[in-house]
Amino acid sequence: MTVAGIVSAIIVGLIIGVLGRLVAPGKQNIPIWLTIVIGIIAAFIGTAIARGLGYADTNGIDWLEILTQVVLAAIGVSIAAGAYGRRGVTR
């Protein structure tokens, strides 16, 4: 992956994180920086999955790749919200 590819993945990751947070069910009590980090990680993993399955390089916008990234971000945000929410609970 080139430097330009990494920078674009980070920028796309910012957007993917926010979209993942919007798609995730329920209220997420996690900070925005964690949402952004999850989005960046989801962008990298989603691209790797799309390349591995062979649908990353299509003509025009790679909708399936973006969908994969958003779904991964939504899953990541949901998991982080559950873990982050339990952090402050004492019994």
UniProtKB/TrEMBL annotation:
<dbReference type="GO" id="GO:0005886">
    <property type="term" value="C:plasma membrane"/>
</dbReference>
<keyword id="KW-1003">Cell membrane</keyword>
<feature type="transmembrane region" description="Helical">
    <location>
        <begin position="31"/>
        <end position="54"/>
    </location>
</feature>
<dbReference type="InterPro" id="IPR007341">
    <property type="entry name" value="Transgly_assoc"/>
</dbReference>
<feature type="transmembrane region" description="Helical">
    <location>
        <begin position="6"/>
        <end position="24"/>
    </location>
</feature>
<keyword id="KW-0472">Membrane</keyword>
<keyword id="KW-1133">Transmembrane helix</keyword>
<protein>
    <submittedName>
        <fullName>Transglycosylase associated protein</fullName>
    </submittedName>
</protein>
<comment type="similarity">
    <text>Belongs to the UPF0410 family.</text>
</comment>
<feature type="transmembrane region" description="Helical">
    <location>
        <begin position="66"/>
        <end position="85"/>
    </location>
</feature>
<keyword id="KW-0812">Transmembrane</keyword>
